[in-house]
Amino acid sequence: MRYKIKGSLILGIILLVSSCQNKEPETELKSEFGKSIYYDAFLWKQGRNDTLTKSFVYDFNQWATETDSYVQLSLSDHTSEPISSSNKTYHFLVNDKPVVNGLFSIESSKKSLDTIRLQIVFKEKINSEFYGFISIKEHNIDRVNDIDQLNSANIYKWSASQQVKMNPLQFRLICIAGVLLTLLLIYLLVLRPIMFKRFGRGVVTIQSPFYKNTPVKNRIKIVYTNKKEKQGFLNKVFKGKIVYVVHDYFNAPLILTPGIKGRIRVKTNGAYSIEPFTSNMEKGKTFKITNTSTNEEITLTYL
């Protein structure tokens, strides 16, 4: 009578991933490899594609060790098709070596190797769940674990999954960009109109000695000057539009800004006098502005 040989495997549980299909009660043990995380490289942040690892500890009894016993195991998917590195989007490694035709052996003569390191390598991003079986293909022993009928017996059901994610750097940059965009919109739509008051509908007209119509709607400032100036793009975005009116009459800037109750606030810097005297021009009235250095006059109306 032959002695019974029992192989034992110790597994660490990481995460349960099982099939959603209805199946009959299963007698094989479950080996859960867990979840592999995948994301593409982005800028200086390298990509990631986890290799999942499980260690199986086995032990032959004395009789099996003395008779050089072995067990050949088969790795298959959920359809019982052997998993080969040549025709799968994922494959297995046993002790860092590719599994050929889905088969690998445990031999009692290699007692020093009493641990099998089994790894699942995903060749590409799949974003799915997988399961299959570890079964006995060939053997010259009587028993593995508590299984007597060893021919093609499934001793483990393995499961694993891959989750495709966004690169963390890309995700952070998108979040930062979203926050900045939100703050920018709040500033442009709420804070900017409060900080930089704009003109309502209206036109400032110079009637003599030259004629010039200047629409003021949605402008924050009208500058009359003899120097050609251009407002910067960022200044226009974050403050509002400024209109520059260039003419030789204005040897010093004459600045108009929105005032209270639809009026225009005038800033002369002492270079001009206004009749009738005011610092806030009312809509519909005509004013005479005199250049104090040249005594030249212009007529200005806010309509």
UniProtKB/TrEMBL annotation:
The residues that cross the membrane are 171-191
Q: Which PROSITE patterns match?
A: PROKAR_LIPOPROTEIN
Signal peptide: which range, if any?
A: 1-22
Keywords noted in UniProt: Membrane, Signal, Transmembrane, Transmembrane helix
Protein's recorded name: Uncharacterized protein
> What is the species of this protein?
Myroides pelagicus
